[in-house]
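A quick aside before the break. I want you to see a complete sequence-to-structure record at least once, exactly as it would be stored in a machine-readable document. Don't worry about memorizing anything.
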Amino acid sequence: MTLLSKPEELLLMAVCHLQDDAYGVEILRYVSEKTGKKWSIGSVYVPLDRLARAGYVESYQGEPTQKRGGKRKRYFRITTAGEQRLLESKALHDAMWNDISTLIEGR
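That is the input. The structure line, written in tokens, reads:
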């Protein structure tokens, strides 16, 4: 099993959570809010591009808007493979945390 990096995992969760609103700036806002850290737009798009190459997300262009001067937003959606990858990642984290919690609580 190929492990996701922490940024990849967080961004995949953000895309899953945001659903139809998963575009660059909104994803950036969401992960910054949830982590309490300021993310740059590059720290969002670079891992998203890796996730797209791996088949965990796909991107598509929204309609052009007047507000953006006729420019389109690039949206992301999680794929079935991405959903499966998130579930596998959660199962791994849960198993490892259960092992650690038992040790810590026993001290």
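Two observations worth writing down. The radius of gyration is 16 Å. The chain has one domain: 6-105. We'll return to this after the break.
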